[in-house]
Each structure stands twice: as structure tokens, then as C-alpha cells.
Amino acid sequence: MTAPGRVPFRDGFLTRDLADLDAVHLAGSTCNTCGIALFGERHRCENCSSRDLRPAVFAPTGTIFTYTVQRYPPPQPHAVPEPWTPRPLAWIDLDKGPRVMGVVDCEPETVAIGSRVRLRCEIGWIDAEGCKVVSYKFEPAEQSA
Fold it and tell me: Residue ranges per domain, the chain?
């Protein structure tokens, strides 16, 4: 970690340099045996149990596979925006990566299956040690003109 005072929401799930949030990507592992991409650093493949894995950094773009609208705030220690408003929570197929779950930062009525989204990393909350915790969400990808 090269950004003093910043920590990832969980080790092994984000690229290590947290200084420039626009450059942070989701990370994980890819199995050399079966080819599956796994979110988060792993030591064994969840698909075939192989230990032959390599580190992977995933594209910051993807497509909404399915979603729901989260109408109630999550429990602690999750950061909860004030005031709370319903938000889309989606399974997203990352381009050349795994399927991950994340909040989509848009109005619930505008989200749709098949929509393109882009990763956005941000400071999610301050932990008990006073460090800024880097988290992620997605936002609608810009449409080309």
C-alpha cells in the first residue's frame, strides 16, 4: 500500500496502490488449470481445487447480469449514506473477469439487465484505527456519441 492512511476493504481484492483511486482495480486470481477467474486472492481454485493460480487484475468495466433494489440499509460495519435511499445492488460480469456483486450508483428505476457499468473506487468509511477504507461500487458507463 503506497497511500498512507488508506487500507482496502479486504486484502487481496483491490490492486495494491491506493493513492490514486481512479487507478485502483478489482483483483483476484485466475486458475491455470481450468481458466476460471476468481474475485480476491486465492490459494486454491473454487472450481477445480487446483493450487496452480496466478494473480489477476480485472477490467474496470462490465455488464449487469441481474440486480435487485436494496430498500433497507445494511448492518454495521457497512458505511450507510445519510439519508438512506434505496439503491440498486447487482451481479456484474466483469469484462474478461469474474461475476462480482456491487452497488450501482444510479437511480433504481434507471438500472437494467444488460446495462454497461464502470468501476468506481472511493473512501467508504473510516475504520477503528482511523484509516480511510477504500471500497468500490459501479456507475453507468458513459454512452459513446
Answer: 6-140
